[in-house]
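Reopening closed ticket. The problem is back. First fold of the pair:
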Amino acid sequence: MKVSDNKVAFFDGLYRTALEQQADLYRQLDKAYAQYRGSGDTDGGRPTETVRNITYELVESQISTDIPHPSVQAPDASYVKEKNAKRVEALLRSIRERLPFERLNDMDERYTYIYGGSVFLIEWDDLLTRFGEVGSVRVTGISPRNFVGQPGILQIDDMEYCFLAFDTTAEEICRRFSLTAAEKARLAAGFEENGTLSMVVCFYKNEAGLVSRFIWSGDVILSDIDDYYARKVKRCLKCLQDETVCTCGEDAQFSLVSEAYEISKETLLCSDGKEIPKGTRIRYYHPKHFPIVIRKNVSGESSCLGESDCLVIRPQQLEINKVLSRVHEKMMMSGVFPYKPDDCQFRYDNSVGGKVLNLRPGETASRFGVLDTTPNIEQDLSYLDALYKDAKRILGITDAFVGGDDLTTQSGKARQIQVDRSEGRLISKRVMKNAAYADMDRLIFELFLAYADEPRTLVYRDGYGKIESDAFCRYDFLAYDSLLDAYVYDDAYLFSVASEKPDKDEREALWKQNLTNYKEGCFGEVGKAEALAKYWQAQEYCGYPGAKDNRSYFAKELERWQMTD
């Protein structure tokens, strides 16, 4: 994409055009959120004062705390590549544990069902240091209402540009970016009434097809990085040395320049025994994708997001609002009204006791009474229930799924079949979640190949639960290309994910199946430490109470047996 000289005007115009062309989409997103929050909207009529928020109920019933765990496969049958694949997998597991993925997942689940998708920003942050390791990834969850994609393009990798828009403060901008006094004054002119500023980030592909980044607020350029993923070094324009070795003193003139290659300062010994000689020229790894991953709910045709559950059941929610509005009016206008003869001198009021009706000779109490005008709303309630069931059917949700009583089946087997069929309609959402996490894992892997200069310590458990240690070193992924006569990074690994733990409804069945497998010798000879260690490892994976202690005990027994064998 060719960028004009006036970059703020160019990108701001591009951003506003994209917003305008997708205005309908963002109106729909606003409607979806208002509906989830319990809006009494009746689609043009008077808003209802009471709401049965089936949207909130059905969205919340689908929220899963399950965080998919990484699975990495080597592209071909090679011991070295399979070992590297396990290292990448262990690295990604450590990232899962280190970052607040529980909170990210909680937000991501709701964004996905409400808006039809969610957005993750994955960046490398050199300021994240840990035990001698400089830099790590930072993952941020972003509302789709803050993401603006290129109009008409449905896949993020096919876009030429996309935007992230945030409301922030001048203090936060000054902390993140180096600004002159004049730029700070221009920022102050753009304050909103609540004291915030609008900041827009644009990721785009430059004329060479390389990912670049431009950030601005108002008419102030906050950051302008051409070739976003390139290694940047502060180099003196006078002596052409980087700032760590420059001796120009006050005459030094530093500028950020991109470095395409590194020169190995010593012989590099890789974990497979391969040696890379000192002085070898190695091209830095260069990621190719936008640092953005989009999780879709259910694939749609209108935008890069998927279909929103809120909007899919919006007709049912609006109709429920209308019916409740009508029921509310009926109930407010109804009441119990007393009546009495015209010649009666007694006056009714709202007091409960102390009133005596004096009847004349020959008069009876039948001349007094009450008129009950309470309406019959049974048909309204039946209609509401039918609308609720219709919304559940659309989303593939059964009564059992939302935790209610399901009396439509007579046997446990028939009920399980019904749940399985419902699960089949919901499985595509899990597939899309897994696909997004696999994309995220690939991007994290690429960032570590590009920027992790120090080996990263990895700790994991083997098949018996024993703690093992290893290290992720980006040089282990170098392979010599005879055609190029150079070392290149091998990134052709296959990424997928699986559930870290089975769902709670599946655990008891898995416990029984593990016991059956043990008795049938699937884990080894029954009664031996090896089989028991594998059995309790499987039970720990499935969340069996006390399995961790048992697995640890038999793992030690196995180790003791192996030492004395």
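Second fold of the pair, where the issue appears:
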Amino acid sequence: MADPTLADRPKAKSIRPLAALWPFLSPYRKVLAAAMLALLLASGAMLALPIALKGLIDKGMAAGSAETINIYFISFLGVAVLFGGFAALRFYLVTWLGERVVADIREAVYRNVIRMDPQFFEVTRTGEVLSRLTTDTTLVQSISGVGLSIALRSSINLVGSLVLLAITNLKLLALILIAMPIVIVPVIALGRKLRTLSRSSQDRIADTSGLAGETLNAIQTVQAFTLEALNAKRYDDAVEASFRVAVTRTRVRAWLTALSTMLVFGAITLVLWFGAHQVLAGTMTGGELGQFLLLAVYAGIAAASLSEMWSEVQRAAGAMERLVELQQAEPAIVAPPVPIALPPYERTAAAGRVNFERVTFNYPSRPDSPALDDFSIDIEPGETVAFVGPSGAGKSTTFQLLLRFYDPKQGRIRLDGVDLSMADPLDIRHRIGLVPQETMLFGTSARENIRYGRPTATDAEVEEAARAAAADEFIRALPEGYETFLGERGTRLSGGQRQRIAIARAILKNPPLLLLDEATSALDAESERAVQGALEALMHTRTTLIIAHRLATVLKADRIIVMDQGKIVASGRHEELIASNPLYARLAALQFTDGAGA
């Protein structure tokens, strides 16, 4: 089963979530190895500079040899060229690696999220998912590319500097090692605090994204009820809450940077004071002090960089933890280990036998209220069955279960003799065509929106489906015809035009089982007559289940199923039910005769 909510999962208390990066890094091991080689060579060139400085002072300047000085300065220039070249190569490789890894993470997370069932989206806000795909992946990108390189470079420079410092003067190194815990302990403590604040900041950003997304997707409702000021106030409050957390996080990070820098360079100053006295005492040469000075600066910069990177690592670990939660989330509806294949069908032959066997189902958000209660029905191939009943009777739930968006609590549902729980959901949905009451169009062309019914369809097949759905005329009248961008959620079309696009999708898919959820409810009388003819031709050779209140649709159904409180209360033809069932007679009077929907 899917987890009830991502926010309730326990938070990691270490950087272990970053281990989940390895599966994304491992395919690019060669690039990583090349970057590490460039890193090692650049660091080696950098560490060679203090040694050259020592020779310059002790063997060149002290000896007064111009030739020796020239040789060492040429060496300096050569080392600088090597350092610059390998540093540039390292930067390119690690930047490419970071971009590539974050692209792979986004793709993997999105592939998993898009297969989640409706139960997951009942408790997970879309804005939260989008925040993780954008903000969190950006944080991970820094640590998997340039950040990783900086951390490794600083580590190499720190270790290399310490080794060379030990060779140069053990007493001075001992002072540095004594000072290290004084630097590291406060940095780690503040780093943990920073991580907690970073995750809280990311959560607040997700809240603002979710709130904005909900409002903008319902902008006409917001404006119709003059709720602009109220929603602006709610968004302002969410942004201010995010700002306060971000300021607190920034303050802690500033203290971390200041404290680490002061401690590191304070320790270096103390050590250099001691070294200067050794030079005066004659136990250390000026070149050795210069070498030690440069190495100590390297070590100080590396340690400060590592302390700074530690906060980035903390933030990236929190972000990776949130991404892993999405990547590893499991849908409640999955294919069994060895799914039973649905029997093959010919598109010209009748198919689509449906059986509900004593099905009981409760929505997860309403566990005490059954949407279907001991529901049984047998529907033969090619039969047209209409479901009617008051709101909440369970009509739409039958469609939800047939599409296997949910599994029943009790009982079984069969499609062409196969228990849906034993079949692959993709196989089930492949042979079902849905025309929903609320059509969802995508931000692409009219042609591509219809082609969602069958992605492999040719342009000619798309246009043929549009003609059958009485959509061809208005599509060709658009500024760019079939290539016209329809806007987000199809905002450039009317409700009736959007519904005809949905009908064209179903016609293009040409499935053996058709589900019509008030498929003509948004059409005017003229369009309904045109589309009704197309639907009748489409329904002729396939099983069709209809949720509708339109009289013409119900009158031509082979059977009308009257539902109430999740149960079948009557079944028959229109005339029979008018005479025998009071609920149907009342619905007919209220909904069919007046042409009103429910």
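Update: turned out to be a display glitch only; the data is intact. The radius of gyration is 35 Å. The beta strands are 354-362, 370-379, 384-388, 410-415, 418-419, 432-435, 513-517, 543-547, 559-564, 567-572. Please close again.
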